[in-house]
What we know:
Elements: E1 2-8, E2 12-27, E3 37-53, E4 56-71, E5 74-89, E6 98-113, E7 116-131, E8 135-142, E9 148-174, E10 178-196, E11 199-214, E12 219-232, E13 241-254, E14 259-285, E15 291-303, E16 307-318, E17 326-344, E18 347-362, E19 367-381, E20 387-399, E21 404-431, E22 441-445, H1 452-459, H2 463-469, E23 482-486
Antiparallel strand pairs: 1-8, 2-7, 3-4, 4-5, 6-7, 9-14, 10-11, 11-12, 13-14, 15-21, 16-21, 17-18, 18-19, 20-21, 22-23
Amino acid sequence: MELIWNECMAEQVVYCGSAQALVEGEIPQLEDRAANAILSATGDVCLLGAEAGEESIRLGGEVRLQLICMGENGVYSFHSRAAFRHTVQAEGVHTDMEVKAQPALQSMEVKLVEGRITLEAVVDMNLRVSSRAPLKALCGIEGVPDLECQGRDISFFRREAVYETVVPLREEIDAAEVQGILQSDLLVTLRDLQPGGEGVELSGSLLVSALAQKGDGSLFHLSQSLPFTERLDVVSAGPLYGVLSLEEGRMRAAEEFGLVVAEGRLHISLYALRQQEISLPQDMFSPSQAFACERETVTLSGDLAPLQERLALHETVNIPGGLPEARRVLYTAVRPVITASNVAEEQLSIEGLLVTRILYESEAGTINAFTEDIPFTANLPAAGATEAIATAQAIAAAGGSGRALEVNYTIQLQALLWSQSQAQVVTGLAECPPAPQPQGIIVYFAGAGETLYDVAKRFAVPVAALGVALEGESPALEEGQRLVFLR
């Protein structure tokens, strides 16, 4: 028997899992500054490369640090980076497959020991590997004209990149008293996409939080929400979905103009969902030739619209015992950590911690700092989703005095969503002896869930012959329905 094959274009999920990488070492200090104390150490992780190997996934990235230190001449800040590489063993993965990896800084500890600053961090990585290689499926047999096939039609969506660009983003804040910015956090959020005849108008917000320094050396907290719009030269027939990220974001003082400038490179990606359909052969038989089907179960994946949600959270945080009361808050840094996420009943449930570092000035004028972990939860709509990779960004501002401080958080949650389904595909045939069949007039009563195809295969007769036996009745069989046919 000469087999006839067909290639179906469908994404197959090969591997889903997670991994951890330990990043540790000494952090280089500024040449002209030596730290006496570390007031704050925050950071994030950037994945610079993720590629599939043979039975493995190779990852590389860096932990990016922002430190505020106390030295002989007062408070100062600097940035540093620590690179890492990690390999994950992953069965079934090959070099031509696509890797999606989402890193998160699970924990980070920065210590000052005998004048040396050391880092110990744990990076979590959610991993997903898929193959877009054509799925080879059996669709026919040369020289077997009475072949009967049973297939399954599958409809799914594919995420298609429609537009991508990087544009400069620059916003100004009136702040004549600011001489310098020691530390800053910037968070960009998407508010709306409005399509029109001449393109798409994108509107968003740039949230900024900074430790600013006045001309007399005193410190204070500067935070604002800055709206922005961009006109994009793109036209699409259907809905568009946008994802924003800020590259090389920073804040600086333009003292000569009495301004603080927040700037960076805004990376804009727009996507559309395109529907695709494939038909997979799941079974076949021939009334004239005996054979058995060999099958393989595959996991197919369809893309869903990316999920974005902005949450606001307010918490009262108490200064730990042993530290003096606050006169005013100088700066608040936050690092969100997702500890659990799960998709069930068309909802994405997220649990996490907001690792919060608060710098404040006491009544005596000393600068103190402490860390508090604030739990958060979110339940987001995820219609049709069976799988998600979620990320979180956050920015915070605190105020108050005494022992109780009020902290306001803005949390930006994003998630890539997929819908998975499993299907059996005929991938080969095996010879087998013909089963003995009754001859003559057959009277058969359909079982629960049986189809005309099932009955035809049981008795090795053409499906069309059973259709004639129905005499105009519906081809959908009911339990107990009588079929009378000749074999």
